[in-house]
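Field notebook, page 364. I keep forgetting to write these up properly, so this time I am using the form the group agreed on. The chain and the ligand, 2-acetamido-2-deoxy-beta-D-glucopyranose, are recorded exactly as supplied. Prediction of the bound pose follows.
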Amino acid sequence: MRLALLALVLLALVISNHPIDARHKGEENWKQRYRKWKEAEEQTHHHDVLIGTDEAAAARVQDEHNDVNNDGLSEKELWRQRIEAKKQRQSQWQASDGKQEGRPMSDITAWHEEKWRRKQERHYKTVPHDLQRQKRHQTRELKLEGESSGKFVRKSPPPHTKVAEMARYIVHNSDWAAVAYTSRQPETFGLPMADIFSISDGLVDNSTGVPYMYISPLDTGVQDLAKDSRCSLAMSLAQGNYCKQEGLDPEDPRCAHVFLTGKLKTVKNGTEEFARAEKLFFDRHPKLRNMPKDHRFRFAKLKISNILVQDYFGGPAHIPLAEYFAAKPEEFNPSKTRPVPEVDAELIPGASSSDSEKWLRPIE
Ligand SMILES: *[C@@H]1O[C@H](CO)[C@@H](O)[C@H](O)[C@H]1NC(C)=O
Ligand SMILES: *[C@@H]1O[C@H](CO)[C@@H](O)[C@H](O)[C@H]1NC(C)=O
């Protein structure tokens, strides 16, 4: 009995001494995975071969038989090279001064990029292409298509001769505006300051021309505007697709801008206007509907006193308020696209007169 036990213990010792260390095991694993992958590769190869001519197929089969792949390397050699490459990669990030410094930054970045790329790839495989497009450009067009008329209508900007219509068009099609006001914050007290507010001037097919906002007094811009409500709103055609499509720089006067000056007024809760503002604002900015209660969001609108439109060359145009409110941006033929106006050299200041020298002279 004792002898038998001793024999068992000895046997166990012999087995456990078998030189399979962790590294070796790892390589074994890797070999196995590689073999599996290779087999799968060969299977597809085989299928490809069957599609080709008989002669090519025969040659390929012969190659496979000789254990030689396309590059003329034997499978063993290929495998050895892969192991070597892997070892080299590992030693690169372990080598520096014997200290474990970790992988170099470029490696990590490359890894993250690859991971992100694969994630995108998976995403694009599962999400239909036109849905992806909509998601990437999730602007008003999505709304136009979905909720309003049920029909996708993309209206083109009016011609540059229709200045009031252009002002209405930009205000109506802007989802946000840059708001300029006078700062009351300690660091910039008394200086001009700008903020970005989401705006909506009406439902998709029913614009009012008055930009409505939904703002919180936690915003420093709103705090300053509470003390001095005078401000100017700047909006540009560059917020839509038109300028990009026509290759117009945002500073190009043909990529029109509109500047509304006036005072910011809050809209009283419980009034008819409040209900209207709520409807038209959240129609375009549904994500702002559920703002935290303690941020005390409220509706505001711009009481417009002056309108400037920069469209085409020759300086900005003043639009009388009555003309602005009488114009309708919805009435333009949606199927007609606005042609990019030609450059009229005579209207560019200094371009065709001796004034140009003044512009070119360096500042003294
Ligand atoms: C457009 O809005 C105004 C109020 O701003 C309303 O009186 C009018 O009926 C609306 N028109 C349409 C077609 O919805
Ligand atoms: C308006 O008043 C109603 C009822 O008092 C309240 O539930 C709502 O939160 C108020 N909305 C805003 C934006 O102040």
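OBSERVATIONS:
- Residues 269, 297-298 surround 2-acetamido-2-deoxy-beta-D-glucopyranose (ligand 2) (CB under 6 Å).
- The domain at 176-326 is CATH 2.30.110.10 (Pnp Oxidase; Chain A).
FOLLOW-UP: compare against the apo run.
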